[in-house]
Design brief:
The chain is 64% helix and 5% strand. It starts with a helix and ends with a helix.
């Protein structure tokens, strides 16, 4: 201090010698005195110099929340990334996901955990990326520069200058920067520090993988156990422990979305008298679910609406119309029909909705087409967006028309040659190249859409589009039967029958009763089947449909055949074959011949049966109906087995197995395996027979084929013991 004191004393003395000099002399003397004093100060002992002011250390992270739940893997990955130092640029982590997932909460928790690793401070800003007025990068840069100690008057006006100053100030400093709620890379890039010692965490609804060097973390929904745990932390662990089943239902109705669970928990916390079951009941009504998920400044609807309102008009329309789609997931072509646009344009809209976190992609379906689905709460939001009634009606008609178009062509490819009965509902065309790609394997297409068919039939029924309702159920019948989706088929038939009766269309009612008889027949309920067929026959007679009447006689003959009533069956089937041939229905004629062949087997007229099977098989092969051909091979094989020609039977059963596996026909596959087991049993190869029967039984249980399961029990009992 002595040196510094002396230096300042010299400056003071210099001023005191001025006396009454003039202005010019005053200035000269004053400057000389200051220079002399400054030289004396710099020559003084360094230990005595005044200390340089410390740079400010910003601590801007928000408060961590006490009830943070789950996200263990994500936190571990964030820890690892943020503590990494072996690179030329500091770590940059981009957390993305839909609104309400807790991206900010996760970012703050991770930042607080590693804050000690960044002694030069932590910066935080809300970029308001999806607000009406997002934060401008220049605005955020100015705030950061001031936080880092820059005099407000020294902050440059130009954004580029501010970017350069930020990189200068952060060079060599170990800072952690959290950029919350970004709307895209353009809002983030200007804010990034340039040195390797600073780290950045960004949150956004949109993926930010295009930012160079970004490590993406895509946030998903909470696991069911984590969701229940979060509910308990907010509402009270005892309430959840006392009613675990309703707690699980409650978080499921919240879609395992943290924001929704937080709101539900807060509602319970402020209402000790409100039971979990009561809140479950309120949330169960999808039309009003979002009304229940708001409390104070927390609101699921508003959180989601930010993303919706940020979309261009056409993508908003896509979101609204998809909210009216009745099934659980969808490819691009239903949106193309809803919007009356090309599938490629629909794909572009779907990709944009995924980027906006308003849709979730799911794995490609059996046709190779990408599929999409809504989070349940986003579906509710989409469904409540207003759409002009005329446009909604037109979109519904196009959607059902597209399903009828594709389903009808799928059935034509699946079992060619059938004279199908159609309604007057307008078809909607799908581009030929796109349609061919979807229907390359018609069974695969139906498998991809199997969960949408019944909802579409119900959708048609609710909108009083009666023709679409009964016809879609009718077209889908062969696929329902082959895949053994009995409950779906039964539901579709109930809706279709109601639609036909509402419309007063006796002919359509007969078609649906014909299909109802088929379901009863496949389920082994022969009396119900015959009753449905009698009603269908009366309706066809009243409508003057000769072909329909002949088709009923065919299926009545099959029921009598299944009951072992050979004479009655032969009479019905012979008459049906003649009438169907006269009507030009080659496929049903061949089916009548195949069924008559089974009757001849039952009557012991095996040579006659083998000839009929070969005749039917040739017709099915000529038509290109591989499934019916596979069944004819199986019938021929059984006749050959009964005739003692085991080698021929093994070959024929093998051919049936090959075809049914190609067609994904599990029930047909099981029957072929059963036949091969019978051949092995007749050959005395016990182990091989039992293996075949076990494979068939596994499929019988899978498809709930009780008739086959009962037959297999008898087959297994009859296997000779080794």
């Amino acid at each position: 201090m002595a040196g510094a004191a002396g230096a300042f004393a010299a400056v003071a003395a210099g001023w005191q010698v001025l006396g009454d000099v003039g202005p010019e002399q005053f200035a000269f003397a004053g400057v000389s005195a200051l220079i002399g004093g400054a030289l004396a100060w710099f020559q003084a002992d360094g230990a005595a110099r005044p200390s340089v002011p410390q740079r400010p250390v910003p601590r801007e992270l928000p408060r961590d929340i006490a009830d943070f739940t789950g996200r263990g893997p994500e936190l571990s990955r964030l820890d690892d990334l943020l503590r990494t130092r072996d690179r030329s640029t500091g770590p940059l982590v981009a957390i993305s996901g839909k609104g309400g997932l807790g991206k900010t909460t996760l970012a703050v928790r991770a930042a607080q955990r590693v804050a000690a690793d960044f002694p030069d401070g932590q910066l935080f800003t809300n970029l308001r990326g999806y607000d009406a007025t997002p934060a401008e990068p220049a605005e955020v840069l100015g705030s950061f520069l001031r936080s880092l100690g820059t005099d407000p008057h020294a902050v440059p006006d130009a954004q580029q200058d501010r970017e350069q100053m930020l990189r200068t100030l952060t060079a060599g400093r170990r800072l952690l920067m959290v950029l919350d709620n970004a709307n895209g890379p353009g809002q983030v890039r200007p804010l990034l520090p340039g040195g390797p010692d600073s780290a950045v965490v960004v949150t956004s609804r949109a993926p930010l993988s295009s930012i160079e060097g970004a490590h993406p973390i895509v946030l998903g929904l909470l696991q069911p156990g984590e969701a229940v745990e979060l509910l308990g932390r907010i509402a009270g662990p005892d309430r959840v422990a006392d009613d675990p089943r309703d707690a699980e239902r409650l978080v499921a109705l919240c879609g395992h979305l943290p924001l929704a669970i937080r709101i539900a928990g807060a509602r319970l916390a402020e209402r000790p008298d409100l039971g979990l079951s009561a809140l479950v009941e309120r949330l169960a009504d999808e039309r009003h679910r979002l009304d229940q998920l708001e409390i104070g400044d927390l609101d699921v609807r508003s959180t989601f609406m930010i993303s919706y309102q940020g979309l261009p008009a056409e993508q908003q329309r896509a979101f609204r119309l998809l909210g009216r789609f009745p099934g659980p997931d969808f490819a691009a072509w239903p949106l193309a029909a809803l919007m009356d646009i090309a599938p490629r344009d629909a794909e572009r809209h779907l990709d944009a909705l995924v980027t906006a976190q308003l849709l979730d992609p799911v794995r490609p379906d059996e046709t190779g087409a990408p599929r999409y689905r809504f989070h349940d709460l986003l579906r509710a939001l989409a469904a409540e967006q207003p759409e002009p009634e005329a446009e909604a009606d037109a979109a519904a008609g196009r959607l059902l028309g597209a399903y009828l178009t594709l389903a009808a062509e799928a059935e034509d490819r699946f079992q060619p040659g059938e004279l199908r009965k159609t309604s007057t509902h307008p078809r909607y065309g799908i581009e030929a190249e796109y349609r061919d790609r979807l229907l390359r394997d018609p069974v695969a297409w139906f498998i991809a859409e199997r969960h949408n068919v019944v909802p579409c039939v119900r959708f048609a029924h609710e909108r009083q589009l009666w023709d679409a309702a009964w016809e879609l159920a009718h077209i889908a019948a062969p696929f329902f039967e082959m895949l053994a989706t009995w409950d779906d088929w039964d539901t579709a038939l109930g809706l279709a029958l109601a639609a036909a009766r509402h419309s007063g269309n006796r002919w359509a009612e007969s078609i649906t009763l014909f299909d109802a008889g088929a379901l009863s027949r496949f389920m082994g309920r022969s009396e119900e089947a015959l009753a449905a067929y009698e009603e269908a026959l009366a309706g066809y007679e009243a409508s003057g449909d000769q072909h329909g009447m002949a088709a009923v006689r065919l299926v009545q003959g099959i029921v009598h055949r299944n009951r072992g009533e050979w004479e009655t069956a032969a009479e019905r089937l012979t008459a049906a074959a003649e009438q169907l041939e006269a009507a030009g229905d080659r496929r049903f004629t061949a089916q009548a011949l195949r069924s008559l062949a089974v009757v001849r087997c039952g009557q012991g007229r095996l040579d006659e049966a083998i000839a009929l099977f070969r005749q039917a098989m040739a017709e099915f092969h000529d038509l290109g109906d591989r499934r019916a051909e596979a069944y004819a091979w199986r019938g021929l094989a059984q006749a050959q087995l009964d005739n003692g020609d085991l080698a021929a039977a093994a070959t024929a059963f093998g051919r049936s197995l090959e075809l049914t596996r190609e067609l994904h026909d599990r029930r047909g596959e099981a029957r072929a395996l059963q036949g091969l087991g019978r051949v092995e049993s007749a050959l005395g190869t016990t182990a091989a027979a039992l293996r075949r029967f076990a494979q068939a039984r596994e499929i019988a249980e899978e498809t709930n084929d009780q008739v086959l399961d009962s037959e297999l029990s008898d087959d297994i009992t009859s296997v000779p013991q080794a």
